[in-house]
Design brief:
The protein is mainly beta and about 350 residues long. It contains three helices and 20 strands. Strands 1, 2, 5, 6 and 9 form a five-stranded mixed β-sheet that branches. Strands 10, 11, 14, 15 and 18 form a five-stranded mixed β-sheet that branches. It has a four-stranded antiparallel β-sheet with strand order 4-3-7-8. Strand 12 and strand 13 form a beta hairpin. The chain is elongated, with a radius of gyration of 45 Å.
Length: about 350
């Protein structure tokens, strides 16, 4: 006979203190998630005036949520398998996503024992509600099949985190904690879940992230930071007593390559065409004291009426050595002189 077994044991002091600290920082009226419900089922039989534990072969349950959602309440409950606690399987645990009613059926000593238990909501409990129920088996049915050992199990019932994740950034050879806006996720056996934020007391940021409870095996852990994915893998093992997982502490390092400071963004190429020259700096040989390069020299004006350039009428440079500007013979089609020149021109040409 094969049974799904989930063994629970006592917690080492350092891990217990750590888990208590993490839980105490998160238990406030504004819980990030809805509380879960769990039910611990113990099977016993009477031996005179004493109660002795009895090993069960199988425990199943059907769950009906306590909800205002009529569809959720009226949906047909599905039979689920409870999980064995300890080596003798005289205790079993049933879990559900919310408080509600558990219909239990336990099989022990060839008998089926049924009972209905309601698990109520704990208003201030961010980590869920746990109830306990004891099922008594007929001693005649069990006969002499009582367990020889009657001391309580060595495993306690508290769940352990599979991994505690710290997201950090390396700054000047130092690891500085960061709190990614997209949170931290983890994958286990092909299914992805959101890790639980462990907030820093009095602040809105997360000091660490809890990835899973009592999940052993290979975990894929990652986060999104600066539009990039940073991830790692870790293997979670069971402890020596096979009661709980040994919590792994993971440092997930990210970097800011490609990040933009707040308020900054990529430049629009269309905005670069109309910018003044100072935006890109002066070119080689430019006058750095002037905001713009000096204008090109203006050539002497052309006679736009005659369509040709005037020539000096006498020797020397015009306006310098006594020379003056004069036009050559006008074209037969030209009827007036340029407005730029008032020099009288002899139609017969220059006199010898």
């Amino acid at each position: 006979m094969s049974r799904k077994r989930f063994i629970v044991t006592g917690l080492a002091g350092w891990l217990g203190g750590l888990a208590t600290a993490f839980m105490s920082t998160s238990c406030d009226p504004d819980c990030p998630e809805e509380p879960t419900a769990s039910l611990v089922i113990s099977l016993v039989t009477r031996d005179g005036s004493a109660l002795r534990p009895v090993e069960a072969d199988r425990v199943t349950y059907r769950f009906v949520p306590s909800s205002d959602d009529l569809e959720a309440v009226t949906a047909a409950p599905v039979e689920q398998e409870a999980v064995c606690l300890g080596e003798r399987c005289n205790q079993w645990i049933a879990s559900a996503p919310s408080p509600g009613i558990f219909d239990i059926e336990a099989h022990a000593c060839g008998r089926a024992i049924t009972q209905r238990v309601e698990v109520e909501d704990a208003m201030q409990d961010c980590w869920g509600t746990t109830a306990h129920v004891t099922l008594e088996v007929d001693p005649v049915a069990c006969g002499s099949a009582f367990p020889v050992e009657t001391e309580p199990d060595a495993c306690d019932l508290g769940a352990r985190p599979s991994a505690i994740v710290h997201v950090v950034e390396r700054v000047d050879d130092m690891l500085v904690p960061v709190s990614p806006k997209e949170g931290v996720w983890y994958e286990h056996e092909g299914r992805r879940f959101d890790a639980t934020c462990l907030p820093r007391p009095g602040m809105d940021e997360c000091v660490a992230w809890m990835a899973g409870l009592e999940l052993d095996g290979r975990l894929h852990i990652g986060t999104e930071y600066c539009d990039r994915t940073f991830d790692t893998y870790v293997t979670v093992e069971k402890d020596e007593a096979d009661c709980h997982v040994e919590t792994e502490f993971v440092v997930l390092e990210v970097d800011t390559l490609g990040c933009l400071a707040d308020g900054e963004g990529p430049e629009d190429p269309d905005d670069l065409t109309d910018r003044p020259r100072e935006a890109s700096g002066p070119a080689a040989g430019d006058d750095v004291t002037a905001p713009f390069p000096p204008p090109d020299p203006v050539p002497p004006p052309d006679d736009i009426t005659l369509g040709r350039t005037a020539q000096p009428a006498s020797g020397g440079r015009p306006g310098v050595d006594g020379g003056s500007w004069a036009h050559p013979d006008p074209s037969p089609y030209d009827t007036k002189l340029s407005d730029h020149d008032t020099t009288q021109v002899d139609p017969k040409g220059p006199q010898q």
